[in-house]
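re: ur question from yesterday

yeah so i grabbed the chain u mentioned. its 709 aa long if i counted rite. heres the sequnce exactly as i have it in my notes:
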Amino acid sequence: MTSSANESKQKSSYKEFTSSQKLIYDFFLWILSSIFDCFFREIRPRNGYKIPKEGPVIFVGAPHANQFVDPVILMGQVQKRVGRRVSFLIASKSLKRKVVGFLATCQLSIGVNRAQDNLRKASGKIFIKDLENDPTRVHGVGTKFTTECMVKGLIGLPNSLGNSDIKEIISDNELILRKEFNLKRSSKIGKLLSGSTEFKVADKIDQKQVYEQVFEHLAHNECIGIFPEGGSHDRTSLLPLKAGVAIMALGAMTHTPGINVKIVPCGMNYFHPHKFRSRAVVEFGNPIEVPARLVEAYQNPETNREAVKELLDIIQDGLKAVTMQCDSFETLMVVQASRRLYQTNFAERLPFPLVTEFNRRIIEGYERFKDDEKIIAIKEEILQYNESLKAYHVADHMVETAEINIFRNLAVLIYRSLKVTFLSIFALPGTILFAPVFIGARIISKKKAKEALAGSVVKIKANDVLATWKILISMVFAPLLYIFYSTIITIYCYRKDYFSNHSLILLFIASYLLSASVTYAALIVGESGMDLFKSLRPLYLSIVDPISLNNLKIQRRELARKITEIVDDFGMQMYPDDFNLLEMSEKSTTTGVDKSGNKIFINEEEEEDRKTQELRQRRKQQKLERLRQQAEVETSGNISESSFADSDAISRLNSSNSLSNIPVFSEYIRPRSSSASSTGSSAPLTMEAKGASEALKNKIKAKMQEKDE
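ran it thru and got these structure tokens back, copy pasting raw so excuse formatting
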């Protein structure tokens, strides 16, 4: 096994990335991350300390809710956290696109051919005689299954209604599918197959070359990224995972014995992923180490399928721990409303990453107790409350903070209206300058979403492609628009003989920077203005219809009380050890602020590990210093013991230069900082200090007794 692995390794044409490729990767990732920072209001990592800093790693992301945005966000967070580069697997179809293909190549992506991308029209029509009892047996009229199809190839329905693998070809007019078509996806599927329909076929794709490239990549301790659902979607739950990720991990460890491939589940959690200035949290799960028994089972042809399936189940469990999954959009709305209502009890705001943890816990609780009468009743009440909010065009957090004081609210309304007007005037120039990009991105992204929806059986509204195309359009058209504005300004200044002492190139560059600065300033100012504008509605309601607003507040208060009782009751059953999220919040330590002025939180476990190492080093040095000083004291005591009077010892005990100068007291008894005392290593330190303190007290007591005698 080892010799064959070495031979294949020698024959491999794998080439490590050059310094120039890595530089290009870092440069374009920095550009893309900067652009994404403009599109998203906030991108936060959670549990980033769990990312392995060395060795081969496969990053598994889900849900794939933002087509080409997800990989860039994940790559950016990994590089910020541990400085590692991730090569993502991408469909070869996407690599053929000009902009996407260029950027993917710069990001060291690995192309993968997919059978569904190679579907072609076949001869004749197909139908299924017995959809209920024999749904995998396909019959054809005028078909040529033996020449146009192949075993393990793909057969597809028109309008992307579904695909299935071919298990067996019996004749030109009959074949067996490996799995029946999913009739639940659309009512059209059953109608087409009951009658007769045109169809498409694709040959089996040999992925050996791709797997070999991945194996070699991992053998060189590099990182691979993959979204195992197979494609992006806008569903509220995960799609079935493809087996490729498990094959890559097991195959790499078989291909190169001795390497330890780790799989890191990554939860891509968005709040309105397709909307401008939304938020995202990337949560990293515990690294999964591939069991040796599965590697052995994978090498056995009789058990390799079971090994792949078991590892895939382990990966899926890891992804479920870092993602939010709901059975419907309605359930997701109920979950988010429940979290906001319960959060009313918190005296402080939860860090944003913990909001996703709270949502996940509520989802788990809902799935477990959804048949309980209390849960059914509270769900209906929350849905009614949401409808009330829609009717009054106000958000839940506005109801929470609204105060019914007509004269005060009138003054606040006037003040905020003036402020919104003032901010709008400042944001207007940049908004007008950037309007062509906004309008173009909106129109084109909706068009692309319609195309994606027509070609997919898993998308609901195709919202997963909106953010991608908005960003791509902005990346292309914004620079062109700035060049256009800069050219006009330069020509105008040249004809009017303005700034004649400066070169036209310098004037053009200054105009370009001015255009970009004005639009960026409009973004920042406009965002503040929009937040204020949204707060005007509840103020207006409190003046013209205070009774309705008060009823909303009462309804919310009662809902919050009921939610609190339910969460406290069922929550303690599910999380008896770590029910209180506020305690988890307190375990987060701020390490500074980001460029937006927000605090950066890290988990205490990582900080504790770092402080433990520092504390061990300090204790080691202190122990050596204490032994050295103790030796010096004993030596000096033996030489001049007779010259010291007992009263002198007592005077030292009472002086300010006595105990505080003894190393064991000055180093151990002095109160420690809260950050240091929070570590797990402080307990042994305190016990050692107490022991030293008791020993010294006993010596002093003995001296005093000798003097009294």
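noticed a couple things. The chain has 26 helices and 17 strands. also Residues 406-454 form the longest helix (49 residues).
anyway ttyl
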